[in-house]
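Changelog-adjacent note: as of this version, every example in the card shows the full chain rather than a window. The one below runs 269 residues end to end.
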Amino acid sequence: MTIQQFRTIVWKHYKAHGRHSLPWRATTDPYRILLSEVMLQQTQVERVIPYYRSWMKVYPTPRRLAGASLADVLTHWQGLGYNRRAKMLHEAAKAIVRDYDGKMPKSVEELESLPGIGPYTARAVAAFAHNQDVIFIETNIRTAIIHHFFRARKIVDDTEIQKILEKAFPKGKSREWYAALMDYGASLKRSGIRLNDKSKGHMRQSAFKGSGREVRGAILRELARGSASRAKLLSILGPARKEQATEQLEKLHREGMICKEGRSYSLPA
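Full-length structure tokens:
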């Protein structure tokens, strides 16, 4: 497989099967791109679409999001999972208003300075919102590269994947290229190709059932309805999981996700 052959395969697939109707593909608004990237972290596209559209009706700008209470933000996030993402997005919006007069910064370095925004997300926003020539890796991109260039290998380092990406990257076409590459990698996965376990940079998502994430979600759903006693929250998934609920309740409190007053808890105002 040559670099040119790889490019041709990706572009051909995108032209015929690209997910052009995704709502965040119809915009170059960096805030909307940021929202989509945060929501898509470890969450399937089909699940994200209705949450994305609903969120944009309530919080269409960083300033509107920054002005909301964390309680309202977490309530609107309910059902999407990984609730810490909503808190980080809320904090990022506050920083955008405070430090950039409510306008999203453009440079990768400035984007990375925002709370909860890491190297991948900063570069994805730079690419999709501003068409900047940046290199980044995510799960679908890994699948595409490993499938065509490292199929026979047992272990592949991200630095090797990045070298291929740098050679294949079409300068000046960042926005289209990454959309095409992600769509192609996603199609390979849907066809049954699972190669990310070969990558040193890939982290497998743990099972939700029985996890701390399940407990955290249950606690936050309960508090979205109103304040609740410690006893009620510790018994939320039954007596067999009381110890796990205790651990997650205390962790949520330390992270500032919930507030405590006496023996009762609530979402932050």
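Structural remarks: The chain has a mean pLDDT of 92.
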